């Protein structure tokens, strides 16, 4: 799972760097360079696709849950609502990947559904607004 976790961390760090740079709604040259260096690091992902694939196929439900928790804990951007949506998207992506290619797919799906989506709150829409 280390390779898959590293790949996802690289992607999330690029998103995090970009969103932190955009927090003031403008991105200067130094911030563009920082974003670029994070994206260039994605070369590692493409060079190690076979190892990442092996992690996906051989992962256990517990490993997916642990990795998801660690990634969400380390991911932090100034836009809290967007952060929450990105973490939910990550959870959904991991769920689909685990269901299609992982071990113990049904057990994994049920555990993720009960744990990761339990805190979703559907906001009521005020019709008068």
Overview of the structural elements:
The termini are far apart. This protein is an all-alpha fold and 129 residues long. 74% of the residues lie in helices and 0% in strands. It has helices at residues 2-21, 29-40, 43-47, 49-58, 61-74, 80-101, 105-116.
**Mean pLDDT rating:** 79
Question: Which structural class do the helices and strands define?
Answer: mainly alpha
Shape: flat
User: What is the CA–CA distance across the termini?
Assistant: 47 Å
Question: Helical residue percent?
Answer: over 70%
Number of DSSP-assigned strands: 0
**Main β-sheet description:** none
List the helices and strands and how they pair.
Layout (H helix, E strand, L loop, with lengths): L1 H20 L7 H12 L2 H5 L1 H10 L2 H14 L5 H22 L3 H12 L13
Helix pairs in contact: 1-2, 1-4, 5-6, 5-7, 6-7
Care to give the gist of this entry?
With 129 residues, the protein is mainly α. It has 7 helices and no strands. Helix 1 (2-21) runs antiparallel to helix 2 and helix 5 packs parallel to helix 7.
